[in-house]
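Thread: quick sanity check before group meeting

JM: Hey all, I'm pulling together slides for Thursday and realized we never actually wrote out the predicted structure for the chain we discussed last week. Dropping the sequence here so it's in one place. If anyone has concerns about the input, flag it before I start.
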Amino acid sequence: QVQVAESGGGSVQAGGSLRLSCAVSDYTRSKKCVSWFRQAPGKEREGVANLYTGSVYERAQYSNSVYGRFTISQDNAKNMVYLQMKSLKPDDTGVYYCAVFVSDDRFCSLASTQYNYWGQGTQVTVSS
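JM (edit): ok, ran it. Output follows.
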């Protein structure tokens, strides 16, 4: 069983920055897809960014809406995955979720249906 917990949400002005953290249990004991999702009022859940913990190259995927502004990274020693967000826009407002899928196949996507372990979410609000 994998436990996931997000933190770091808050309220910022447009153009500001924020870093979210995702604590994942047993981080190094299995290879995982770790992905960030978000959901805003009136909108469907959107995959934001992901990475594969077992990748030597640590190649990440990003949605078009955040590409160039958000950066996903990991720290194996701390069992943590981060989402660094900059140049925030009001449209970035929403509840951000961290999700995990345990896999040895490196098939990570931004589709929420792939992931079976979810955190409770952390609110990000960007004001204009």
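AS: nice. The chain has a mean pLDDT of 93. The longest strand covers residues 94-102.
JM: adding both to the slides.
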